[in-house]
Specification:
The structure is a single chain. By secondary structure, this protein is an alpha/beta fold. The protein has 2 domains: 297 residues, 3-Layer(aba) Sandwich (Collagenase (Catalytic Domain)); 58 residues, Type 1 dockerin domain. It is 26% helix and 11% strand. It has 9 helices and 6 strands, in the order E-H-H-E-H-E-H-E-E-E-H-H-H-H-H. The protein has a 6-stranded mixed β-sheet. Strand 2, helix 3 and strand 3 form a beta-alpha-beta unit. The longest helix has 15 residues. The protein starts with a strand and ends in a 10-residue tail after the last helix. The structure holds zinc ion.
Amino acid sequence: MRIHMFLLVILMAAVPSQAEEWRCVTEAPPSPYAKTPGCPLEGPCDDPVNRDAAIPQPGDPVKTVRVRFVVFAEDDGSNPAATAQEVSDELALMNAEFAPHNIQFVATTAFVNDSTFRTDVPGADVDLMKQTYAVNPQTQVHVWVTDYPAGLGGLAVVPWDPVALTALGGMQVDDDRFGTGQKLILHEMGHTLGLWHLHHGTFEVPLCSPCFELADGSNGDVSGDFCSDTPPSPAGCPPSPPGTGPCTGVAYPPAQPENYMIPYGPDPVCWDQGLFTVQQGGRMNCWIEDKLTTWLDGAGDVNSDGSVDIADSVFLLQYLFVGGAAPSPLCQGGVNGDSDVDIADAVYLMAYLFTGGPGPILACP
Ligand SMILES: [Zn+2]
């Protein structure tokens, strides 16, 4: 499921009332966590108990996510979509704003000279762009920076999307919305780590359906964005007067315009004093632990060569059975998350690499 940010603005303006086409996660695969009444859940992190259990506590290890910026330029290297300084500034902003939630980022940057993907890249070409230039997408989130058609500021693939860890995952950020002082990347990274819009439960689901987040807050944990510390918001940016909820007749609570997951629109004024809430932080940590552990710096890279592949499993087997070198530090070999390093870790890694098993755990504190 891909989140079309500014495209939604246009669609919202084009329809007089709640848009029927905005469905509640129906594109997603069948979920074993679904419960009724409520919204279909995408995984354990839509359960508020698991969300809250993942809220970082003092002393918890920081989760460091690997990022690969891919910045396009023309064939001759001219007109780059961003400069190295702009990438550096965006990375610094990400680290500052996600730090309260124990999430940090390390990044590499690829400047790609290919005019095919530099100007007005249509959606039909995006998959080809990604498949051509993605590098180890299972171990790092890609940020695709170039010029996209008018109306598309950003777009992200959420963690429960089956393609999240493939070349087709990652996020797109338009070059007009990327650079020093631009904050759209925070919003898109929020999606990438498992956040919905605050208005998901009011604008992106059928009106007054079980997935509709009610103005009285009674179903905030199990509908909409699955966070009860974010108000059910009918408002964009800048927020319009909230008014009365259509399903309850109860007045909406004040909007939370500073939240990074609320605004649509060309002006990011709402993000000047931006935040992610405590529960949003819990969701991001939960989804990272559930789906995105292979993006964590160090996870699964048993032989410390910078990638996660068959060589890591072989390295582990050689250490265990033929006196090969030990992982350094040894905990790096504990990819299945239990307390020791043994054959089960090698099997776990092989299952991840070849049969779709869960990703390696970042075992070292
Ligand atoms: Zn969005």
